[in-house]
Specification:
alpha/beta, 3 helices, 17% helix, 37% strand
Length: 211
């Protein structure tokens, strides 16, 4: 497997409900995680690597794609295992996890925690579901254009996020503190063409969710 030149985006196709996947961009490295093999085939995407214990996918695996087989008895989910591999072997600039939501709530939440693991190590993550897009990162700035019929939420993933400022939204914040034990930032909406979010410190996620 030639991965020497891979330092761009790593796309993981997880095993939640099927959701539309973005077109493969030049330089993307694609990992199908267990049931993600089925979703990759459905989307017409050939993965560069397959990772899984294959408890949720029992179909035929392609013979021309490398496979990392995992034991069912393990601490990491298949997607978490794929993230660890990607961070170590690819050192990507960003991760995108498709088919990340829906299905079992515990698996969806595990994907968010796995995204936080990567973000804590400086790699921002986007998670895609059928009805939501989630961005997870450590501190920093985000600019999101207004979308009709979509809510905007901001949550702390670490114990607290400091210096949280939100502009261009109905409910603005200025140098506020968000904690992971109170949903202050839930269900906001745009008051301008663009919402801007700044976070001085902490792991956080922005969520666009179809109403």
């Amino acid at each position: 497997m030639d991965i020497a030149a891979v330092h761009g985006r790593c796309v993981l196709i997880s095993g939640g409900d099927f959701a539309a996947l973005p077109p493969r961009a030049p330089g993307d490295f694609v990992i199908a995680c267990d049931r993600g093999v089925q979703w990759a085939a459905q989307a017409g995407i050939k993965p560069d690597l397959i990772v899984g214990d294959f408890d949720s996918y029992t179909g035929v695996l392609p013979t021309d794609v490398p496979v990392i087989r995992l034991r069912p008895e393990k601490d990491d989910t298949d997607t978490m295992s794929a993230i660890r591999w990607a961070l170590q072997e690819l050192q990507p600039s960003a991760l995108l996890i498709g088919c990340a939501m829906g299905g079992r709530f515990d698996h969806a939440f595990a994907n968010i925690q796995a995204a936080a693991f990567a973000a804590a190590r400086g790699v921002p993550v986007t998670l895609l579901g059928a009805n939501e897009t989630i961005w997870v990162q450590r501190g920093g700035y985000m600019r999101l254009p207004q979308r009709e019929g979509v809510s905007l939420s901001v949550f702390a993933l670490s114990n607290e996020c400091t210096g949280v400022t939100i502009r261009g939204a109905k409910y603005a914040l200025d140098q506020a503190v968000l904690t992971n034990a109170f949903p202050l930032g839930v269900s906001n909406e745009w008051a301008a063409d663009t919402a801007e979010i700044w976070v001085a410190q902490g792991l956080w996620m922005a969520v666009e969710c179809r109403k």
